[in-house]
Amino acid sequence: MVTQRKMNFSSHEAFVALDSDGDQNIDKEDLRQFFSRHCQYVPDKELCGLIERYDKNRDGKISYCEFAEEITPRCLL
Question: Are 54 and 62 in contact (CB under 8 A)?
Fold first, then answer.
């Protein structure tokens, strides 16, 4: 018998963990600091690619709404 575990994931907590300066947006420097805290080096090109992927209004930063929209499952089976 396989049991399913309920995941206690909070998109808000994830966003706060990425928003290192607390300005309610995630920018390239926030991402760089997040990866640095986790001993990971990510080149600027890759950081810019992440911003471009999630930044729907193209203002150079990711708002909570943009973030939550992208990471929230669209369909639960």
Answer: yes
